[in-house]
Amino acid sequence: NAGVTQTPKFQVLKTGQSMTLQCAQDMNHEYMSWYRQDPGMGLRLIHYSVGAGITDQGEVPNGYNVSRSTTEDFPLRLLSAAPSQTSVYFCASNTGLFGTDTQYFGPGTRLTVL
Amino acid sequence: AQKVTQAQTEISVVEKEDVTLDCVYETRDTTYYLFWYKQPPSGELVFLIRRNSFDEQNEISGRYSWNFQKSTSSFNFTITASQVVDSAVYFCALSEEDNAGNMLTFGGGTRLMVKP
Predict the structure, then answer these.
(1) Which of A14, A38, A79, A92 is a plausible cystine mate for A103, CB 3.0–4.6 Å?
(2) Closest approach of chain B CAs to the CA of A36, in angstroms?
(3) Does the beta-carbon distance from A42 to B33 stay under 8 Å?
C-alpha cells in the first residue's frame, strides 16, 4: 500500500494563477481532509469529506475548492492564488470509525505564491 | 469550541537528558481523542499515539511515555534519555466525537532540538 500520496511536492505560483493539488489514498478510507501548516500555528483544517460526493468546510476554507468524485481521490483547487496561501499542504485520510480511528497524512505539498 | 495549547515553542536539551513536552486542551465533549504526531526535518507527519478520554492510564513505549490527566486537561509527552534523532517538531491534537470525520485540532507544535 502506498498510503496517502500527494502531488506535486513543490510548487511556485504567481498571484492570480490557479492550480490543483492532488491527493490519493489506497486504504479505502471514507474520510479525507486537507490541512495547511503555517509557522507557529500547527495544522488547520481547510476542507474535509466523509465520503464520495460529500464535502464540507473546515476552519479556513476561503480561497479553496474541493470535490470528491471517488473514494480514492480528493483534489484541492486554488482558484486564484494569493501570497497568503503560501503554506505546506497536507492531505489526510481515516476510516471514520471513532473508536479505533487514526488520521494518516500524506508527505505534503510546499506551495509558494509570489 | 475545541482548542489545543502547546506553550513550549522550542526546547533544547543535550543528548541523554529527559524532556517533557506539555499539551493542554479544551473541549466541551465528554468523548474525545488525543494524539501526538512527530514531524522530523524531512517534513512528514508521523503518528505516535492516540488516547481516548475514558482511558487515563499512562502509556509507555520504549523511551516515550505519555501522561493523561483529565483533571488538568493535559496530555504530556516525555522522552527519556533523548537522542539526536528525536529532534523534530511535535504536535498534540484533539478529535471530538461530535466532529464529523473526526477532524483534528492541532496545537502550535513544540520544536525539540537534541544536541550531541
Answers:
(1) A92
(2) 11
(3) no
- Which one of B44, B100, B106 has the shortest CB-CB distance to A42? B106
Chain B positions with Cβ closer than 8 Å to A: 4, 6, 9, 31, 33, 35, 37, 43-45, 47, 50, 52, 91, 93, 95, 97, 100-109
Q: What is the pLDDT of residues A75-107, one digit of tens each?
A: 999 999 999 999 999 999 988 776 567 888 999
What percent of chain B lies above the pLDDT cut of 70? 96
3-state secondary structure of B107: coil
Q: Is A96 on the interface with B (CB under 8 A)?
A: yes
In degrees rounded to 5, what are phi and psi of residue B60?
-130, 135
pLDDT at A14: 97
Q: How many residues does chain A have?
A: 114
Which among B31, B44, B108 has the least Cβ separation from residue A40?
Answer: B108
**Cα B110 to Cα B116: distance, rounded to the nearest angstrom:** 19
| A91 contacts A34 by C-beta, under 8 angstroms | yes
Nearest CA in chain A to B110: A40
pLDDT value at residue A100: 61
C-alpha cell at A2: 502506498
pLDDT the model gives residue A1:
73
